[in-house]
Amino acid sequence: MSIWIGAAMLAAVFVTSTISGIFGMAGGLILLALLLLILPVGTAIAVQGVIQIVANGSRAMLSRAFIDWRILGTMMLGLLVAGVILWLSRYTPALATVYIAVGLLPILVWLPPSWLQLDAARPLHAFACGFLGGGLNLTVGVSGPSIDIFFIRTTLDRRTIVATKAAMQVLSHLSKVVFYWQAAMVLDATEWGAVLLAAPFAIAGTSAGYWVLQRLTDVNFRAWMRWIVTAIGGYYLVQGIALVL
């Protein structure tokens, strides 16, 4: 990894962590897209997981007073079941599959409310959220929109949504790093040093995003969240179709 690529990665970590700090999502989507340009798919997913643990962890700490622990615990059960199934099936990711799957995810946040009456505050829905979101995080590296559909129509305020999702993502990304540990071992000590150096940039970006979040209304929060995810998904979908063709 050249010094310029390393510098670009650090800048990307700060910007994407700021975005995630505001909306509780989207930053991981952008970061994974950048990492897929320079690393093998399994390695990119693992590295993104390490960085996202720091970014989401700092976000969860900043807003820990708003975490809904009941919802978090139920989602964790769903994640555990998904992880066991994928481990037993010896799943390995393909680049085109990752791009197309992530590109299609934004469709979920535009479905009419009458089609999917999902609410993470309901135990069964929280379990499904953990299973679907955790499973997608392990298979394609991100899961934001699949988790958002369980939160975007709840009566929870924006701070509880961001805090609970951040705590869930810490655990989800941790399971992803364990799942792709062998793929991550292709990096040398210098490259891992660059990844570790990204930690303070992730924390700084998260802090900046958290500051903006406190000044954003719930209405604007939900509106911007949909459009940002859709734009990123469009990029992924184009890349995936290009690979297939």
Walk me through what this model shows:
With 245 residues, this protein is an all-alpha fold. The chain has one domain. It is 78% helix and 0% strand. It contains 12 helices and no strands. The longest helix is centred in the last third of the chain and has 27 residues, at 218-244. The radius of gyration is 17 Å and the shape is globular. The two termini are 29 Å apart. The model has no long low-confidence stretch (mean pLDDT 84).
The portion of residues forming beta strands comes to under 5%
Count of alpha/pi helices: 12
Please state the CA-atom Rg, rounded to the nearest Å.
Answer: 17 Å
**Overall mean pLDDT:** 84
Q: Could you give a quick summary of the protein structure above?
A:
The protein has 245 residues and is mainly α. It has helices at residues 3-23, 27-36, 41-62, 69-88, 95-104, 107-110, 123-140, 144-151, 158-179, 181-184, 189-213, 218-244.
What labels describe this entry?
mainly alpha; 245 residues; globular
Task: Provide the fold topology.
Blueprint: H1 3-23, H2 27-36, H3 41-62, H4 69-88, H5 95-104, H6 107-110, H7 123-140, H8 144-151, H9 158-179, H10 181-184, H11 189-213, H12 218-244
